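Hi all, long-time lurker, first post. I run a small reading group and we've been trying to get comfortable going from sequence to structure in the token notation. Rather than ask abstract questions, I figured I'd post a concrete chain and ask someone more experienced to write out its structure so we can walk through it together at our next meeting. Sequence below, copied exactly:
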Amino acid sequence: MTKKDVIQLLEKIATYMELKGENTFKVSAYRKAAQSLEIDERPLEEIEDVTELKGIGKGVGDVIDEYRQTGESTTLADLEQEVPAGLVPLLKIQGL
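-- Answer (accepted) --
Happy to help. Here is the structure in token form:
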């Protein structure tokens, strides 16, 4: 698992939350966490506690830790169940 995988996970969670109409602060927290990981130059293996990075709190840190340990995210799985699958591809259509 690479840092890029975790960044993509966080962006995907943020997108699903946005589609679901979640609180904008929660959506923003996932996007900021992705940016923090992207800015940090260390490989993922060298970052022991992701919550030490600016912009990553305990909640998002727990999601990252679960993904690092299991390769899966229950947060994303739950969101995928709640958001109609057809909505995500619509985001790629310009003008919508």
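A couple of things your group might point at:
DSSP finds five helices and no strands in the chain.
Residues 3-90 form a domain with the DNA polymerase; domain 1 fold (CATH 1.10.150.110).
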